[in-house]
Amino acid sequence: MNLQLAKQQWQPIAASTDLIPRHVFHAQLFGRELAVWRADDGHVNAWENRCLHRGVRLSIGINDGRELVCQYHGWRYANRTAGCTYIPAHPADAPARTICNNQYPVIEKDGLIWSCMADDQPEYSSTGFLSGEKLVLRSIPVNATVDVLLEQLTDHADNRDNINLQSTNPHATHVSLSINDQHDNHQIDFFLQPVDSHRTVIRAILSGVQSNTNESDKLHNLYRYNTTLTEIRELAENEMQRLETPEPWEVVIKPVSELLAHMPEASNRANGLLRVKVASTDNTATAIKSLELVSIEDQLPTFHAGAHIDVHLPNGLIRQYSLTNAPGQTDRYIIGVKRESHSSGGSSYIHDSLKIDDVIAISAPRNNFPLRRDAVKTILIAGGIGITPLLSMATAMHHSAQPFQLHYFVQGEDHQAFSEVLSRFETSLIVHTALDPAETQSRLNEILQDYQDAHHVYVCGPGPMLDATRSIAEKNHWPDNSVHFEYFKNTQTQDDTVPFTVSLARSGLTLQVPSGRTLLEVLRENNVDLPSSCEQGACGTCRVAVTAGEPLHQDVYLSHTEQQRGDCMMTCVSRAKTDSLTLDI
Amino acid sequence: MQAKHTLITLYDYELSGNCYKVRLLLSMLNIEYTSQTVEFYPAQQHKTSWFKSINPLGTLPVLVDDDLTLKDSAAILVYLASRYDKSENWYPAGDAATLAKVTEWLAFADSITGSASQARLAEGFFYQLDAEACRASAHQLFRILDEHLWFAEQQNQPWLVSGAEPTIADIACFPYVILSEEGSIMRQDYPAIRRWTDRIKRIPGFTVMPGVFPAGPAQTT
């Protein structure tokens, strides 16, 4: 075998039938171990067989249909992206999107799963099989080199009148034999999978099988060639006894750099945008339209329950929308958009002008409203369109059979969006229809009775409802860090009159923030790059740490406790109570 | 299927695969029992005169049910299934051929114990055994097992013995297969065995032991 040439080619790593649902197959190619798994949506993943955390083999992990869970400390990785979606030891944080396992290319063709270790993979081209049905024979792992096996296979052909060697490929991992006996004209293509320097899997496809062959004849063929290949294995392994066993191939596992894992998200809105296509739309409720967005070029990035994206509309407006599907459903993003009665052109554009197949730009998902998966009890409270991030959370918990309650407050039945998804939650869903503010408050009070350790509530909806929920939770002794909320917008009156001085501890800069300008604007003017999203103190993206001075909080993102602690602030709206502030940037 | 009236006692050691066979079936049949720990390592309690008065062979597990004392994991599995499994799936006594197949695999399970378990004793419990030879025999058996299971899959047969339900043959073979890595016997080359172990982990009542991980839920739709 020509190792260099062989590495440039697609090589088989498994049979299609090896990848049964909810199973992780343990593969190896050129010494590199792979965890290969099929998600419930049919997608096949081939990943480095190594958890990023402690290096435990992912092939002993759990395939839950959407995510692969490491057995050791429960890190979860998403289908398609291999991005980490949850770290149980950090339940309150969304993992950095850059924590991502190494993936290898995969093609499923001709009944086998193929991968290629080259940087530039050639097009996959099928072998010239005989017409008729194809039968994938049982794979035979052999403790022998590809070369020794190849010799045994050609010897086998040479010693039999009815078997002719047709071809071997230049890098000598593929052998084609024709078999002619009184009944059949068959062809067998052997693909010798170089597992390691001295270990090979024989994978073989029998072609020319008559398409009306019954099950027992198929089985007969499978048994017959299994016996032959088992004999060839014995000969090859005996031959290996006489040879010196070569050293195993050295495998370099690409490290995921610390730097990359902690890099802040790109702030420049023109950079890092993804182009997506509107695949479908649905008028899911009165004045609510859902959009299914699929990627045009690249894989959509990993996201976590509670995440949102910036949507850049063709009319220049930028709006934030929560993703409603669950982590691991990485083939699409689904958002829900409510037509605002006083729309300044964002939601009305989406409702009136955006069509199927239109292309729009979106940011990568951000998550400032992450779901903990370690709660004893999780209560989700949605008001109107506030259902969107909570739908993602509910879908994730429902999929992993974690208990939750989803309380959905709507004006009327025709305002209930995403009914089809919601119906799956059965008794976990409680819909509260057409309640006035007083009734809503009394209902919230019932829901938020009996706080106990490790209970968590997540609330998203109109501002007054969030305010009410937070104050009712406080009255019922819910600690701040158990009450998670996301406002759509900041309706608080903003005071931008008082100027202040800001010192940047890491950058060594001292800047003046005049009245009428925001801290974020002044930072950007001075080339201090910060990520931001809503720029009205609702989403939490532009948060920075404060090391001295007292901030004047004007956001609706931080909890009261966090605001009082005074060790961080939102640069887009918040200012200073003291003459100067020192920031940890 | 029903909880027992008089309590069964299992002389048990947590790290023993043979004891695990019995714990698995007790749990799958939902039979209540008390566990009496016999420290195999390092105390070697199974070789004391106290334990030899219960089982002169000095081996684990031992099961006591009323007046009956049983001392071999296969015998115990046969007894529990025959006596307590009303469905007769676990030990299908009514069908001669099936019953013989189950017995064949019980013998095969003993061969696995004689190889894979021995390698584990050498690696993890410092027994003076030829671990390399044990591993080689285990691999020969695993090749046969994988081939059998692959052809069973081709015929939509999920278990060792043909039929829709698992039998004590599966329970007898499972523990020292799933613990084989502790004897440095990798199962990478046995994909059909790996899938079969996933199926066993999804049998209602399945329990784990140290070194055995649970499976995730099966696909429902």
Could you write a compact summary of the structure shown?
The complex is a heterodimer of chains A (585) and B (221). Chain A has eleven helices and 34 strands.
Question: Key terms for this structure?
Answer:
heterodimer, A: 585 residues, alpha+beta, Rieske Iron-sulfur Protein, Alpha-D-Glucose-1,6-Bisphosphate, Chain A, domain 4, Elongation Factor Tu (Ef-tu), domain 3, 6-stranded antiparallel beta sheet, 31% strand, B: 221 residues, Glutaredoxin, Glutathione S-transferase Yfyf (Class Pi), Chain A, domain 2, 2 domains, 4-stranded mixed beta sheet, 7 helices, 4 strands
CATH class of the largest domain in chain A: Mainly Beta
Q: Which ranges of chain A are low-confidence, i.e. pLDDT below 50, for 5 or more consecutive residues? A: 257-270
Query: What's the total helix number of chain B?
Result: 7
Taking the alpha carbons of the first and last residues of chain B, their distance comes to 27 Å
What count of structural domains of chain B?
2
Number of continuous helical runs of chain A: 11
Overall spatial form of chain A = elongated
* Rg value of chain A: 30 Å
CATH architecture of the largest domain in chain B: Up-down Bundle
Order of helices and strands of chain B: EHEHEEHHHHH
pLDDT under 50 segments of chain B (min length 5)? none
Main sheet summary of chain B: 4 strands, mixed
Percent range for β-strand residues of chain B: 5-15%
Instruction: Tell me the quaternary state.
Output: heterodimer
Query: Which structural class do the helices and strands of chain B define?
Result: alpha+beta
Q: Write down the overall mean pLDDT of chain B.
A: 95
Average pLDDT of chain A, rounded to a whole number, is 91
